[in-house]
């Protein structure tokens, strides 16, 4: 009887051990663990249901359509150590755990490239990560968590990433020297959200159809240049750019158009707002307890209210183009001799009764606006407004197209008329 029992145990070990070994050798984690440092782990085409950890300098690269999917609470891909690269894979994170991440990153000099993420949680979480590059990738969420979330991570680069349907597209906190370039962020809460992070560079991004294009808070020494913050108007508190407790920040050459508020600066000082196109917003620029800022060479066109200032002083507003200003240039300097003082009458009127917005630019409203004197602390005054816009007005460029199109129609009509006359004569 004892021999029979030993035989049964032996057979069980014989049959179960090889199969478990084969299963282990077929996993991605096994391939990663067996790969030498600085090598490329090439993943064959297919769908892999597992979570993996990359903790040594290797490149994980998909060949063909490769999907890594997991519904566990841990990240689908965890990146640690130094010089890890992940390329050409799709990552699906379907966990219901709070703050679960599709990709979690820590360490130095990593690279995430051509990675496409669909997630119920955070897209990419950087925590104590440095010198990492995220490029040419995409993240699509369910509006519950952030697309790319940085916490105490410095000198990272996020470029050419498409982010949509998340809470905050790019959220950074205590993450100095972060660079975000040429990203598209849409259908989210805040496109770019900066908290307690200094020397941030935001360039050539498009943030549209969000509640706010960019929330720049508790920051110093940042650069916000050549971006498009457009159509962020779906909420009563929507803004193109919010500067809150921001200092020494440059907002330069941005297209800030068709938002509820173009630029809102609150408790912010010593910032430069230069050469921006501010078009079609309900409020072009608004200051609240903002002092010592420079607003110059901007173009304000077709805004319902150009500007308003509340409890703000010592701001230098000069040489901007205001399409609503009276223009007289006696000496040919290019600047109007008539200072332009913004009038927040319509804004004040509609604050308590929003329905009055229906009467914007009606004759009676224009007369009332002329009669009502704005308090000095609620208006901005430009002593030398520009005569012409430094940025070409769209209406002028489009009028040229209309003229050409009209001429073509006219010539076409003459041609058809002459053809008809020839037929009649024949």
Task: Tell me the domain tally.
Answer: 2
Shape: elongated
Structural class label:
alpha/beta
Radius of gyration in whole Å, from Cα? Answer: 30 Å
Assembly state:
single chain
Strand content: 35-45%
For the termini, the CA-CA separation is 119 Å
Detail the poorly predicted runs.
Answer: 6-24, 393-410
Q: Count of DSSP E strands?
A: 36
Mean pLDDT: 85
What is the overall number of helices? 5
Instruction: Classify the helix fraction into a percent range.
Output: 10-25%
How would a textbook summarize the main sheet?
22 strands, parallel
Key traits:
alpha/beta, 2 domains, 12-stranded parallel beta sheet, 5 helices, elongated, transmembrane helix, NosD_dom, PbH1, transmembrane
What can you tell me about this protein's structure?
This protein has 426 residues and is of the alpha/beta class. The chain folds into two domains: 43-172, no CATH class; 189-371 and 378-391. Helices cover 19% and strands 40% of the residues. It has five helices and 36 strands. The protein has a 22-stranded parallel sheet that branches. It is elongated.
Topology:
Layout: H1 2-25, H2 28-34, E1 40-43, E2 46-49, E3 52-54, E4 59-62, E5 66-70, E6 77-79, E7 85-93, E8 101-108, E9 111-119, E10 122-130, E11 133-140, E12 148-151, E13 157-164, E14 168-173, E15 179-181, E16 184-186, E17 190-195, E18 201-203, E19 206-208, E20 212-220, E21 223-225, E22 228-230, E23 239-247, E24 250-252, E25 255-257, E26 261-266, E27 272-274, E28 277-279, E29 283-288, E30 294-296, E31 299-301, E32 305-310, E33 316-318, E34 321-322, E35 340-341, H3 345-352, H4 363-371, E36 381-382, H5 394-425
Parallel strand pairs: 1-4, 2-5, 3-6, 4-7, 5-7, 6-8, 7-9, 8-10, 9-11, 10-12, 11-13, 12-14, 13-15, 13-16, 14-17, 15-18, 16-19, 17-20, 18-21, 19-22, 20-23, 21-24, 22-25, 23-26, 24-27, 25-28, 26-29, 27-30, 28-31, 29-32, 30-33, 31-34
Antiparallel strand pairs: 35-36
